[in-house]
Design a protein that fits this description.
Layout (H helix, E strand, L loop, with lengths): L7 H12 L3 H13 L3 H18 L2 H25 L21 H20 L2 H23 L5 H32 L6
Helix pairs in contact: 2-6, 3-4, 4-5, 4-7, 5-6, 5-7, 6-7
Length: 192
Amino acid sequence: MIDTQGMSFDLAVLEAIERHRTGWADAATRGLMDAGQPAATYVLAGLAALVFAWACRAWWAVAAAMVSSFVATGLAEWLKEVIGRPRPPADLALVPTDGAAFPSSIAALTAGAAVPLVLWGLRRADRVGRLVAGVLTIGTLAVGVSMTYLGAHWVTDVLAGWALGAGVGGAASWSSERLANRRTVIAGEPVA
């Protein structure tokens, strides 16, 4: 049995989810989780990122997204080992899970990848930028919510993963912009 003392919020959220699960939501969240499992998904996402970078001239933002997703995931995995918080109990979960839970590495990965591109989209301030920012925000939220819905993570695991990924993504975005501006100044081109 998992010691849930001090986790009343997490437990209350997961128990409420468990009481209100529906067949269509079960299928949708399992489908979202399964879509992210095969290694081919990462290859396709990488190719899509390169096409996006080329089409939108967003090389620095895409580079920041790729770096921050790896760094945020690595930090989350390390923190899981240090903290050692157990996953939700099997009677509240729809999917079997193992290992430590806090912070959610999938939440850190998605936020780390999304934040530099969301910031790029908001700075761009046009229809394409707003679309990119909106789609990535909704996608990141959907992944985190589905992990809680499935009982693979406590809600605070996901919130911590998002915070970690957003922080790393923001730092990567800031750094990539500084590098891009420095490169532009050195090349003698006007800074935008």
